[in-house]
Write a structure and sequence with these properties.
about 325 residues, alpha+beta, Glutaredoxin, Glutathione S-transferase Yfyf (Class Pi), Chain A, domain 2, 9 helices
């Protein structure tokens, strides 16, 4: 799909790899932090102070990692303070690209492809060009392309700016949040890709078994409360929802994660609809983009590019009282 090598786009290079028959996702490399006072965060360098209008977020509707950042941005009420540019829901030989004719425009520089943003915001970058990525308009530098860290920044660094001051990583629940994140990411968030991109029966079954192990465990957990950690919505829920939003319309068919659908889990299905009803969340969910994107033409998975008409999913369906 292409890669930046020393700041130059190489259409023949690829970042994600398959080790033997198993899919492996490469790690994010740009790891600076926005902090309340501009000091250095857990990684990277300092100088990135939280200020309204200073930072610009690049996303794509179909990317679940970008979806995390859109959710935290919406829940914290940061839409007016952190503007976005949305990449087209497709990738070409130039990777993630804009499509002005269909409304996908870089409102900062008018770039045609995301790799141009990476080249401008880093020095001799080598690696994958991914969304989300956070741009500092003051220094012209990229801050981070690690979604897990971007949502932590949005939650904490912008507390003095955000319209909603709820802390989604409260100290007393921190260990529980980290435990759920560490479990859900390999089993479910990335597990669907391990199943979908597997190149052997064993690799596929290994990936898909983890997916349903996680869904089964979460289903049981939700008997005790509305959210993963009880009565309080946390970052763990925010990181889970993008996978659930895509499950029935995309992963179930395109990635063969078809032992059960989300709607076959009473607690999970109610949970997903409860999350969808939160302020700003519905604006981030694009079911038809997911359906078409995950069923786009692939020589291995979908050589004719046929997009299924179903299943139909309605996250606005009322939740029945227990």
């Amino acid at each position: 799909m292409g890669l930046l090598v020393d700041g130059t786009w190489d259409t023949n290079a690829s970042g994600d790899t398959v080790a033997s028959d198993r899919f492996e996702r490469s790690k994010a490399q740009i790891r600076n932090w926005v902090t309340a006072d501009g000091s250095a965060g857990p990684s990277g360098v300092g100088g990135f102070k939280a200020e309204s209008g200073r930072y610009h977020l690049y996303v794509a509707w179909n990317c679940p990692w970008a979806h995390r950042t859109l959710l935290m941005r919406a829940l914290k009420g940061l839409q007016a303070h952190i503007p976005i540019s949305v990449l087209a829901p497709k990738r070409t030989e130039d990777g993630w690209v804009f499509d002005p004719e269909n409304g996908y425009v870089d409102t900062i520089s008018g770039a045609s492809a995301l790799h141009e943003i990476y080249s401008a915001g880093t020095i001799d970058y080598t690696g994958r060009v991914t969304v989300p990525v956070l741009w500092d308009t003051k220094t012209g530098k990229l801050v981070s392309n690690e979604s897990a860290e971007i949502i932590r920044m949005f939650n904490s660094a912008f507390q003095g700016i955000a319209e909603n001051n709820t802390d989604y990583v409260p100290g007393h629940l921190g260990s529980g949040i980290d435990e759920w994140n560490a479990y859900i990411y390999p089993k479910l968030n990335n597990g669907v890709y391990r199943a979908g991109f597997a190149r052997s029966q064993d690799a596929y079954e290994e990936g898909v078994s983890g997916v349903f192990e996680a869904l089964d465990r979460i289903e049981l957990t939700l008997k005790a409360g509305p959210w993963l950690l009880g009565d309080q919505l946390t970052e763990a829920d925010i990181r889970l929802f993008p996978t659930l939003a895509r499950f029935d319309v995309a992963y179930w068919s395109a990635f063969k994660c078809n032992r059960r659908r989300l709607i076959d889990y009473p607690n999970l299905w109610a949970y997903a609809r409860r999350f969808f009803a939160l302020p700003g969340v519905s604006d981030t969910v694009k079911l038809e983009i997911y359906r078409r994107g995950y069923h786009s033409r692939s020589d291995i998975r979908n050589p004719y590019g046929i997009v299924p008409v179903g299943p139909l999913v309605d996250f606005s369906e009322p939740i029945k009282a227990a």
